[in-house]
UniProtKB/TrEMBL annotation:
InterPro entries, per database record: FAD/NAD-bd_sf, FAD/NAD-binding_dom, Sulphide_quinone_reductase
Pfam families: Pyr_redox_2 (PF07992)
Domain FAD/NAD(P)-binding: 38-158
Protein known as: FAD/NAD(P)-binding domain-containing protein
C-alpha cells in the first residue's frame, strides 16, 4: 500500500477513536457565509496555534477567534521518534484536528497564502477560492517546512527499501521496517545543513537503531554512521559530553561537517559534501538510510508576506516579548519564529504563557511585560529505556527541572518522555494549561 493510502486509513481510524467536537464552527474558504473579521486570527493549528487559541478561547468571546489550518489530523510529532523505533504507532501520535481545536473558535480549513500586515488581512486559498480574512490581532504559528526535494533523488528514494525518515508522517513507518529488514552493512543517519526542529531527533533514532540491532543479534554485522552537517554532536556542551560517551561506548562512527546532497536508490548509495573542503564529495553505501530533511521558512512567510520575515525568512519577532518588531498587533510562536533557541514543542510550551500575557496587554492598550528566556528541551532518547533530558536557555545554559544530573542516561526520564509527556501535551498544553515546567523547577530548586 502506498504511504498516502496508509495515511488515509490512519485518518479514518482516528476519527472513530476521537469523535470531532460537535459544535466546532468550521467553514471552508469556498463558502463565504461566515464572519470574515475576527479579533484574533491564528495561522496554524499545530502545537503553538492550538495552545494559544485555547488560552484566548477562555478570555475572548465566541466568534472572536479564527484558526486557519488545512490539515484534518493534528500530530504530536515528538512521538515519531518512538514510532520509528516501534514503541508507539503512528495512530497513537495523531488526533482529528476538530477534536483538539477549542469548540468556540472558527476553524478556517484552508491554507493561508498571503499576509498583508498593512491591511490587517490574511489571504486564504488560491485562484477562484481565494478569500480575505481580517484581524485585529494575528498570531503566526505555521511551523517549519520540510524540504526533502532539496536532496537529489528524494523524495522518490522513499519508494525503495531501507530509506526512511522519522520527520514525516509519510515516511516514519518505514523506519521500523528498515530496522526489521536490516541484515548487514551500513546504517547511515543524517543531519542537514539548515535549521531543524528538534535538533536531537536525528541522533535519537541512531541510538534506538543500535539497541534494536543488538537485541536482534545483528549489531556485529552493522556499521552505524552518523553524518552531521554540524561541527559538534550537540549544541550544548553539558549534554554533548555525555553523548560522545554514548557514541564511543556503542561503537558508532560520527563524521562532523558532512551534508547529504544525493541519494541513489538504485545502487544504495548516499553522497555527502564535506563542508570544510569545498567540492569534495564522499559516497557511502547504505543498507538503511535515515534522512533528516533540510528545513526552512515557509514561502508564506519568506516570499508572500510583505514586511513579516527577517532576512532569512522566519517571522521577525522580539526574542523576549514574541511581538513582531514592526507590527505591534502581530506575534509569532514556535518553529516559524526567528527566536535563537532550539525549535521544539517544549520551547512552544515556554513561549505560550509569555505570548498570551503580552498579547493580552497589547489588546488592553498596554505594553508587553513578560520576557521569554529561550527555554527549550530535548529528551535525547538513547535506546528502549534510556534518555538524557536536555533543558537549556538562549545562552545554552542548562535550565534543568529535576534535582538530579539530567546529563546522565536515565530510565525515569525515558518514562517521562514516553508516557508522561504525551499526557501533558494532549490534556494540558493543547487545552492552554501548560506553560512548561518552570513551576516544578522552582519547587525542586531547594533540593539541587
Ligand atoms: P507545528 O506543530 O509543526 O504546526 C504547524 C501547523 O501549521 C501545522 O498544523 C501545519 O499544517 C500548519 N500550517 C503550515 N502552513 C500553513 C499555512 N500556510 N496556512 C495554515 N496553516 C499552515 N519537540 C519537543 O519538545 N520534544 C521532542 O522530543 C521532539 N521530538 C521531535 C521529533 C520529531 C521526529 C519531530 C518531527 C519533531 C520533534 N519535536 C520535539 C519538535 C516539535 O514537534 C515542534 O517543534 C513543534 O511541533 C512546533 O510547533 P509549531 O506549532 O511551531 O509547529
Ligand atoms: C515540555 O514541556 C514539552 O512540551 C509539551 C515537551 O514537548 C513534547 C517536551 O519534550 C519536554 C521535555 C517538556 C519539558 C517538560 C518537563 C516536565 C521537563
Amino acid at each position: 500500500m502506498s504511504c498516502q493510502k496508509l495515511l488515509l486509513c490512519e485518518v479514518h481510524s482516528l476519527s472513530r477513536k476521537f469523535p470531532s467536537v460537535q459544535n466546532i464552527r468550521k467553514f471552508s474558504s469556498k463558502r463565504s457565509n461566515g464572519n470574515r473579521r475576527f479579533k484574533l486570527v491564528v495561522i496554524g493549528g499545530g502545537a503553538g496555534g492550538c495552545s494559544i487559541a485555547a488560552k484566548f478561547a477562555k478570555t475572548l468571546g465566541p466568534k472572536s477567534i479564527a484558526v486557519i489550518e488545512p490539515s484534518d489530523v493534528h500530530y504530536y510529532q515528538p512521538m515519531w521518534t518512538l514510532v520509528g523505533g516501534g514503541m508507539k504507532s503512528l495512530a497513537d501520535s495523531g488526533r482529528p484536528m476538530s477534536s483538539v481545536l477549542p469548540s468556540s473558535i472558527e476553524w478556517v480549513k484552508d491554507k493561508a497564502t498571503e499576509i498583508k500586515p498593512s491591511k490587517h488581512t490574511v489571504v486564504v486559498g488560491t485562484g477562484s477560492s481565494k478569500q480575505e480574512i481580517q484581524y485585529d490581532y494575528l498570531v503566526i504559528a505555521v511551523g517549519i517546512q520540510l524540504q526533502y526535494e532539496k536532496i537529489k533523488g528524494l523524495p522518490q528514494a522513499f519508494n525503495s527499501p531501507g530509506v526512511c525518515s522519522n520527520y514525516s508522517s509519510l515516511y516514519v513507518n518505514k523506519t521500523l521496517q528498515a530496522l526489521k529488514d536490516f541484515n548487514k552493512g551500513n546504517a547511515v543517519f543524517t543531519f542537514p545543513n539548515t535549521p531543524v526542529k528538534c535538533a536531537g531527533a536525528p541522533q535519537k533514532i541512531l541510538y534506538i537503531a543500535d539497541q534494536f540491532l543488538r537485541k536482534n543479534g545483528k549489531r556485529d554485522n552493522a556499521k552505524l554512521i552518523y553524518n552531521t552537517s554540524l561541527g559538534v554532536l550537540f549544541g550544548v556542551k553539558h549534554y554533548a559530553d555525555s553523548l560522545w560517551n554514548v557514541v564511543k561506548s556503542r561503537d558508532i562512527s560520527v563524521n562532523l561537517r558532512r551534508n547529504l546532497v544525493e541519494v541513489n536508490a538504485r545502487d544504495k548509495t548516499a553522497i555527502f559534501e564535506d563542508l570544510d573542503n569545498a567540492g569534495k564529495l564522499e559516497t557511502v553505501s547504505y543498507e538503511m538510510l535515515h534522512v533528516t530533511p533540510p528545513m526552512g521558512a515557509y514561502d508564506l512567510i519568506k516570499k508572500n508576506s510583505e514586511d513579516i520575515p527577517d532576512a532569512v525568512g522566519f517571522v521577525d519577532v522580539n526574542k523576549g516579548t514574541l511581538q513582531h518588531v514592526r507590527h505591534p498587533n502581530v506575534f509569532a510562536i514556535g518553529d516559524c519564529a526567528n527566536l535563537p533557541t532550539a525549535k521544539t514543542a517544549a520551547a512552544v510550551a515556554g513561549e505560550n504563557g509569555i505570548l498570551f500575557r503580552n498579547l493580552t496587554n497589547v489588546m488592553n492598550g498596554k505594553e508587553p511585560e513578560l520576557i521569554y528566556d529561550g527555554y527549550t528541551s530535548c529528551p535525547l532518547v538513547t535506546g528502549y529505556d534510556k534518555c538524557i533530558l536536555a533543558e537549556f536557555d538562549y545562552n545554552g545554559q542548562p535550565l534543568e527541572t529535576f534535582p538530579i544530573d539530567q546529563s546522565k542516561e536515565r530510565r525515569s526520564m525515558f518514562l517521562m518522555k514516553k508516557d508522561v509527556m504525551p499526557e501533558i501535551y494532549w490534556n494540558l498544553m493543547l487545552k492552554g494549561n501548560w506553560n512548561g515546567p518552570a513551576p516544578f523547577r522552582k519547587l525542586f530548586a531547594p533540593f539541587k
